[in-house]
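Quick one: structure for this chain?
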Amino acid sequence: MRLSASDIRALRVFRSVVEHGGFTGAQLALSMSQSTISFQINALEQRLGFSLCQRGRRGFALTDRGSAVYDYSHSLTSALSSFEQQLGELRSRATGVLRVGIVDATVTDTALGLDDVIDQFIRKASEVDLRITIGSPEQLIADIAKGGIDCAISPRIKLLPGYAQTEFHHEINSLYCSERHPLFGKKVVTKADVEAAQVVVRPYANKSELQYIPDARVGAYASNIEAQAMYILSGHFLGYLPDHMTVMFREKNRLKALLVPEAQIRSPFVIISPKHKKASLSQRIFTQELRRRVASSGQRPVDPGHNPPPTSRRK
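Got it. Here's what it folds into:
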């Protein structure tokens, strides 16, 4: 069969339904009603001549043929996006869609300055539809693998072959405890004190958070930075957090850094992209702006060893 423009639109709706695990998530992502999504899926099934998915009281599930169509659609959507970008490059203009995945809890990193990067990118590539996805490193890698995003900004992690990691930034992480934790009020905290407490870690960090406290007791696992902060603020766990995101909590005397500077971790940030795919003009512009912003920040690292006078204290 020859694909029409309506077929391609319906395929995009179908992909969204699959990637969001059903119609409800796709409704939010696409800003479409359930009836519109159902119409698109039904129309696609009629064109193909077979059922793509089962939906009803038992929930959403792909048929075998539906799973195959979803897998085949990766190459189509990637080719269409690449075609749009290549046409733009022939005119020396950045066009099409650029999909960038960014790890969570980066908005407070003024040295990284992603708001400034986005501002400058839009000024220089106004014809590009910039789409940003926030997620954990594992989610971002999965999104790259299935063609959902073009590149990702993330701490360096262990990857499968086939992906390039270009280092461009460093983030300082310190070991923190909250006001609710017994170590918060202790004047001198030792490594033995820390290793006797429970810590929360991120699996994707590949045990790097335990390099200075190898005998610490891991009591919880967090999928991302914000979840890690919640565990720490509960008072039951110690854990690492980026210094840039703790300023507000330290000002309110709710967090304190421990074993500074010896237990601090310097986490490299990288741009992750598939090796087999040439970066588009829009992706190169975005990458250049990232490097420019980091190089021009000239910002001194936050000193987490000093807690500013509290502005207010939660009772």
